[in-house]
Amino acid sequence: MSMGGVHGGGGGTGGARRGGTAGAGATAAPRRGFSVDEQAQRAANAEAPKIPHLLRRISELFAPHKPALITTVVLVLIGAALSVIPPLLTQRAFDDGLFPTDGSGPNLTVLSWIVLAMIAVFIVSALLGVWQTWLTATIGNKVMGALRVRLFTHLQSMELSFFTRTKTGIIQSRLQNDVGGVAGVLTNTVSSVLGNTVTVISAFIAMLILNWQLTIIALVLMPFMVIAQRRVGQVRARIAGKTQESLSEMTAITQETLSVSGILLSKSFTRQRSEIERYADENQNQIRLQVSQQMTGQWFFAMVNIFMSSIPAIVYLVAGWLIAGGVADVTAGTIVAFTTVQARLLFPLMGLMRVALDLQTSSALFARIFEYLDLKPAITDAPDARDVPSGPALGRVEFAEVSFRYPDADDDSRPTLDGVSFSIEPGQFAAFVGPSGAGKTTVSYLVPRLYEASDGAVRFAGVDVRELSQESLISHIGIVSQETYLFHATIAENLRYARPDASDAELEAAARAANIHETIASFPEGYDTVVGERGYRLSGGEKQRIAIARVLLKDPAVLVLDEATSALDTISERVVQQALDDAARGRTTIAIAHRLSTVVAADVIFVVVAGRIVERGTHAELVSAEGVYASLYRQQEERPVLELPAVE
Q1: Element (DSSP H or E) covering residue 420
Q2: φ, ψ of residue 183 in degrees (nearest 5)
């Protein structure tokens, strides 16, 4: 038995699989240059998506931390109440301790008790502040961590088509930049809003108690500051959306160009300078947006600061008028206490306004996060989904009038598969051959339900795959593709990705079956050899055989080989082909084949043209039929073959 892969078997999707977007934040345009569509998409991304009940959904993130939140609220209220006591004690220190009204001179006993009380308040406030900071930091970071894991978990449930039409850098940006961007809000918002609100209210009450006429001075311009703050917040929210979109683009550029594949591509075409320029241009855009975001509202806060800082001087003047006119009895203690309260009012008031701005700014980031969380996976388990049944039918694969069109394909384009029907019995070796773009690879996508058939039914072990749980279905299918993916880890860790509990003996047995054990044993570190990113420290044949060993460790009932050897040189192909032949014994095998010489021993060969099966049979039957298969076989047989010198 011999099997192989077909170069270009997945081309039936045309360009549809590579384009498109996913949500407002996912751009998917040509890698070089900016098309009109991409510019339009980027402009749309700059505006935060409209998420219903956004504030309620943000508040729900804190629901699992109610006890800690209640404790924080209590600490904030106590701390805010304590912050008003020192100014009132200051008034008593001046009027009763330093300058008693009876003119007897300083009363040191009273003054000592007042000073001790003030120190005690400061100590308690400091301790409460440390406790409060620990609580808020813990709550905020736990909420942020849970949000990041929740988003990562949700992305794991998305269908394959979501990832084929969305840049990896865009997805990474949502997880890192957007979630990280709201960290400060999640960590500090609750305590800041509560603490500053209570402090401001308490301070105003204390000011009214001290002197209502002076309090009016501090309230005159407050409505104007609130209106200005809202306008500033709206501008900053818009800039924040554009800033995150720019960060997404920078992440995408980094992911594309600094991967091993990207570096090889840029070096082989001497495009390092253009890549640097592309990154530098986006970096300049990011700098401009960051500066704009930081500067937006600075004039507003500068005016607020001037106003609040000028109030003591105005209070002195007004107090002088009141005393000179005999309108109010204002003591020195009252003036000092009032200005002390007003000074303590400045920072919480500014803090409230900054929190309001931060909330408006971060709403764009929260909206982008919830936009991804609201995406509905196109492929989900049915409510009554069941496991794959065991028995003699395990390994049978059937297509019944299956038609399929990729989700982002044009409605008027021809379907990738059109009324395809076939049956593969357990243990059979079936090959799919045909010209590039015929839809062969799509067959391999529909069997494990990576995509959903548009019409018809795909059955596994006699059951419609839509009635089976995805986890159970994929556990019985092993896939070896042309593009082998290995993690930047050891060979043993890459193999155990199939079975984390596999013993060393089982790893060795799988490696021997894949004809790779001797090669691994020759490495200085053996199975502890780190393969490098995507396995670039290994040859193509070595990577492919490790991938085969990984599948063998999984021990699936059905083996799908999608162009498994088409990217290898002749010598490597022979070695890998032998490993594939050994791996296929006793399993249902579906091979997407390009080199027809590798599938001549197949039990059944399906010839796919333009999404339809036009011929089926054994190699001998199809050659004698003088149809499409015979024509393809003769074309490949007639191609000149470069004879390699024998290896000594």
Answers
A1: strand 417-424
A2: -60, -45
